[in-house]
Each structure stands twice: as structure tokens, then as C-alpha cells.
Amino acid sequence: MTAALKLWAVALLLQPDLAVAGPKKLTIVFTGDNGGEIAPCG
Amino acid sequence: MLDAGNALFKTAAPGDEQARKRAEFILRSMGELGTSAMAVGSRDLAAGPEFLKKAAARARVQLLSANLADGSGKLLFSAATKLTVAGVRVGLFGISPVQDADGVRGSPPVQAALAEAHKLRGKVDLVIALAAVPYADALQLSKEAGSAVDFILQSHESRGTGIPQGDGRNFVIPTGERGRQLGRLELDLSGSGRWVDAGQRARNEQLIKVLDVQIAEARKRFDSGSPEVKQSLSQTMQSFQARRDSLAKESSSLAKAPRSLKLDFLTLGSEYPDDPALKAQVAVLEPQPSASEP
Predict the structure, then answer these.
(1) Contact assignment for A4 to B278 by CB distance below 8 Å
(2) Is this complex's ipTM strictly greater than 0.95?
(3) What is this structure's pTM?
(4) Do A38 and B159 touch (CB under 8 A)?
(5) What is the DSSP letter of B287?
């Protein structure tokens, strides 16, 4: 398992939330401080 | 999908060829994920602004920084962008740390942020700062911006996860670290006015449950205690009850809020499967030692 792979899988699952949320509701998914990480994160 | 910056390199020092390849891979993955924008942090500039601009353009990731300029004072990246998602108009701007090296000058980020926030406010429903700056700068922006900004997504020191910090006019939001988490901010924009952290209500309710248990326990001991113990327990129970009442009152007030946020983090554990194609690319870029190696 790697950080990048997991991020990929989870973000794809969450992306549809952005599109189907009601007009007054919004879900934002985000990352930060990845620090060049692609290696296994345990 | 947004990124608060400091995504690409392990340090701000110039990276080698391998580090640049890894940075390009990360940007490409972010582009394929549909990342709408990313702030430029100090750990994104390790290979210089030209490398970053070209790699981001290839990956179709929008870079934002309202305060990074070249030697002539011209901004190196777009300061802000607007997009509409699920009927909500979102204004985004980026800020970077103060710096003056290798032809990149970072002016004071809070001033630049305030200028962008005021430009966006009134034109959008939501103003979000992608703040690749020290936490102290993010807190200063929170204080000075008031309701000109809604959320400040901060990266710089790899602070990891946490709870939203704010007074209801805006909140500073932690963004995780090292790709270990994915942040999720659920917003209800049904009304106007101050923001309320729905997570605070949940935390209050948890504390109320704990206090209820402690009060019940104190009552039991009170019934069988000596006069001295009873006097001490009476004061304790009064203190617990006052705290409980205060939390219940706050929760009731939070429940009536017209605009709320709920922050949580998905920790990327083994329950999330690998993408085989990405896994193959990672194996090339960063081979893992086999179990038999010392």
C-alpha cells in the first residue's frame, strides 16, 4: 500500500459527492503537506 | 479536490533527478484526480518555478500564489480562481511563505491574502484560502480577514490532522500530512451569517455523557460518605453540573446555526485497495526493499 495509491482510490470514491450534493450543500475533499511522499506509509 | 501545497518535494532544498521525477508523478496523479487548485508552498519550489510551472501545466493542475513574484515584481502564478461546484460559487486563492531566493520573492502573505479575499467576497458564495504558509501566518490571516474569508486550508509544518480553529467568521483547517489522510469538509450553506462547527456539537455531546457518568458516580459516593466527603463531593457535583449545563446550552445554540461545517479525515489504511497501474509506476520510482534484504 502506498500513500499515493490510497489517495487515488479514496479520492475517486469521494469525487461524486461534489457533483450530487444539493445546491446548498457542498463537500470539499483536500490534501496538504504531502511532502513528496509516494512511499508506503504503513 | 484541493491541495493546500507543499505536495511535491521532501524538503525545500534543490532536488535531484529522482526527486523531480517523483514530483512530476505526484502532479500528474493530482491532475488525474481532478485537483482544482493547489497553493505553491516552499516544498513545491525545490526545482525552481519554471520546472513547477511546466510540470503543472502538463498535469493540468492550477497553481495559485498571490504573493510570489519574479525579480521584476511580476507574479509567477495566478493569484486566484473561481469555480462553481454543485451550484455553489467558490473563490480560491493561494498564498506562499515570505522568501527571497533564486529569483523568487514572496511578499508578506497576509497582506496579499486580504487583497484577494476582498476582491472575491461578494462575487462568490465561499472564499477559500489555500495557505501554504506557517501556521502563525494562517492564524494572523484568520484574525485580520474576519468574514472576508470562510476557510483557510493550511500547510507548511506538516501539522497533520486536527480540529477547525476559528471564531465563526472563518476557520483555519488542518490538511493532513505525507499523504496519510484525505480531508473532508462537509458544508451546509443553507443560511447566512456565522459558521458553526458541527463537530463541536458532537464533541460537546461526548463530554456531556462523560460528565453524566461522573455525576452519577459522585452521587453514589455521596450517599454513603462521611460529612467531610459529602461536603467535598457536593462541590464537585456542582462543578460538573455547571459544566454540563454550559455544554448543553452551547450545543443547543450550535444546533440552530444556519451555516455549518463538519471536518473529518479519512486515514488511508489497508481498507483502501491499490490502483494496479499506479502501483506499477510507484514501484519504478521508489523500489521497495525486499523482505530478504538486511
Answers:
(1) yes
(2) no
(3) 0.86
(4) no
(5) P
